[in-house]
Specification:
lyase activity, 50% helix, DNA Cyclobutane Dipyrimidine Photolyase, subunit A, domain 3, binds ligand DLZ, binds flavin-adenine dinucleotide, Rossmann fold, 7 strands, binds iron/sulfur cluster, 506 residues, mainly alpha, two-stranded antiparallel ribbon
Length: 506
């Protein structure tokens, strides 16, 4: 054969550069379910099942398009367990003229691919991944000219570059960002939309049995399994989102509600990140709904910003700062991750809800990740690297390039403010305003200290107190430091004592 084309698990895109450079008549595709990839962190069972099933369906799609695909299942005799092992075997067997692969999404794998250039006797072509708007080199050039990196300015460039929601050279509606309208708490609505679900087919049933047998001791519930695993079904999930939930996406983007894990979110990151969905196409569909008058501008803009703004921006930061970014720890936090991140056994109703649904669904929406589990970890001083491994493990959409900057940068401020302008630290009052968790909670959100007080309160002020020298110069935090310093010494002692007692019991 001519080219051996390796397709990685998050490259399930028919227009992938490695495939576009190939010829089904002369080249061979290799895909593999690998022990090393499923266990470098012990991924949630549902995440592994989702990806293996999506990979198997993609292999079928490629075969339908005329490709010869060597698909190595996890239980295939002789499965070598790693990308390198599997490629070495394929090279020995087929003696290709070249190995061709689209660049990897994460540093660890990218290093592996680079290493093959010396390891194998055939040339290795690593092609750019054009499924993103902004290449790592483009981002580096953008970043170089700035003293401070801020998503908002990057986002405006991406709007101009794509023409999304642009009227000529002006943003639609005369404003780039409508977030000020997007901070409403939600009420239970009997007609709350639910993401489209998909019953497992025979391929998924096989994968579910395999995952149950081989990864039964990993975190999370395997069943029920309702994710889409084909491009067509993932696109149907987007269609349903755009008609049913998107109109309210903006207004309730920051809301949290008991028993409503999805609210008005799209629940498509797992499809985007493995390549089943094309991000630009999804954004164009959302813009079309706005232009057709079925979706308000604050919703369409808010949604498109998440994808061409945040998603691209965090990837740019990842490649700009790796390696090393995974060990950033601005606040010097070292506390181990509490057990309740795995068991949900805590009296804090908000944390319990977020962890329970994470276990059941491999999903929590952004505000649960940022303002509940992330915020708690920040206030409690949890080791950011341990927390990073948790987020990478538990979510179906988690890949290091997107998870790490969100955790280390946005959520933990462990990069000292490279990615975000201020730490996302908040007391119980924020959670109370944006959710209905606090009413039935065993803790009292109105009390600052004492055994019945909401732990987020004393921990919040204790965080401000502990780190005041590091945050006092941040214009968005200075007010909080001054407020703390105006508390009577007694109150300051009660805060420290309450926080210490709670942390000692973790
Ligand atoms: P929606 O709320 O409906 O948003 C639409 C889409 O916008 C998402 O599908 C996603 O592709 C994109 N998006 C939204 N916010 C972000 C963001 N901050 N960064 C990148 N893309 C974004 N997202 C991941 O895709 N993978 C991760 O591993 C991941 N880890 C996170 C860890 C932490 C600590 C935090 C605070 C956020 C993380 N996010 C991650 C971002 C965000 O929470 C998820 O993208 C989102 O919850 C996915 O659900 P959804 O598809 O319903 O998104
Ligand atoms: C996340 C993951 C998992 C669980 N399993 C596989 C696998 O078996 N085979 C594979 O090709 N990729 C898998 N992946 C994705 C990779 O770990 C990695 O995230 C991507 O290749 C991006 O570098
Ligand atoms: Fe969470 Fe505090 Fe509200 Fe309980 S009272 S749900 S711990 S914010």
């Amino acid at each position: 054969i001519r080219n051996l084309i390796l397709v990685l698990g998050d490259q399930l895109t028919p227009t992938l550069t490695s495939l576009a450079a190939g010829d089904p008549a002369r080249d061979r595709v290799l895909m593999a379910e690998l022990h090393d990839e499923a266990t470098y962190v012990r991924h949630h069972k549902k995440k592994i099942a989702f990806l293996f099933s999506a990979m198997r369906h993609f292999a079928e799609e490629l075969r339908g398009a005329g490709w010869t695909v060597d698909y190595v299942t996890l239980d295939a005799p002789g499965n070598r367990g790693s990308f390198s092992g599997q490629v070495a075997e394929a090279v020995a067997e087929h003696q290709p003229e070249r190995i061709v692969v689209t660049e990897a999404g994460e540093w660890r794998v990218a290093q592996m691919l680079e290493g093959w250039k010396a390891q194998f006797s055939v040339p290795v072509d690593i092609l750019p991944d054009d499924r993103f708007l902004c290449s790592p080199a483009d981002f580096a050039a953008w970043a170089e000219s700035r003293k401070q990196l801020r998503m908002e300015y990057f986002y405006r460039d991406m709007r101009r570059r794509t023409g999304l929601l642009m009227d000529g050279d002006q943003p639609a509606g005369g404003q780039w960002n409508f977030d000020a309208e997007n901070r409403k708490p939600a009420d239970i609505d009997l007609f709350m939309p639910q993401p489209k679900t998909h019953a497992p087919d025979a391929i998924s049933e096989d994968v579910l049995a395999l995952v149950a047998a081989r990864f039964g001791n990993h975190f999370g519930d395997l069943l029920p399994f309702r994710y889409a695993v084909t491009r067509a079904d993932a696109e149907a999930a987007v269609d349903a989102f755009v008609t049913e939930a998107l109109p309210n996406f903006g207004d309730y983007q920051d809301a949290m509600l008991t028993g409503q894990p999805f609210l008005y979110h799209a629940v498509i990151a797992q499809y985007l990140n493995c390549g089943l969905l094309d991000p630009l196409r999804v954004c164009r569909q959302v813009e079309a709904a706005f232009r057709a008058g079925t979706v308000p501008l604050n919703a369409a803009e808010g949604f498109i910003r998440q994808i061409i703004g945040w998603r691209e921006y965090v990837r740019g930061i990842y490649w700009l700062k790796m390696p090393g970014y995974e060990n950033r720890n601005h606040f010097g936090h070292t506390r181990p991750l509490p057990d309740f991140y795995w068991t949900a056994e805590t009296d804090m109703a908000c944390v319990r809800a977020a962890v329970m649904q994470t276990k059941e669904l491999a999903y929590a929406h952004h505000i649960q990740r940022l303002m509940v589990t992330g915020n708690f970890a920040l206030l409690a001083g949890i080791d950011p690297h341990e927390l990073h491994e948790w987020y990478l493990t538990v979510y179906a959409d988690a890949y290091e390039w997107v998870e790490l900057p969100n955790t280390v940068g946005m959520s933990q401020f462990a990069d000292g403010g490279l990615l975000a302008s201020k730490p996302y630290a908040a007391s119980g009052a924020y959670i109370n305003r944006m959710s209905d968790y606090c009413g039935p909670c065993r803790y009292d959100v109105k009390q600052r200290t004492g055994p019945d007080a909401c732990p987020f309160n004393a921990l919040y002020w204790d965080f401000i107190a502990r780190h005041r020298e590091k945050i006092r110069h941040n214009p968005r935090m200075a007010q909080m430091v001054r407020t703390f310093e105006k508390f009577a010494p007694d109150e300051q002692h009660r805060i420290a004592a309450s926080a210490a007692t709670f942390l000692a019991g973790l």
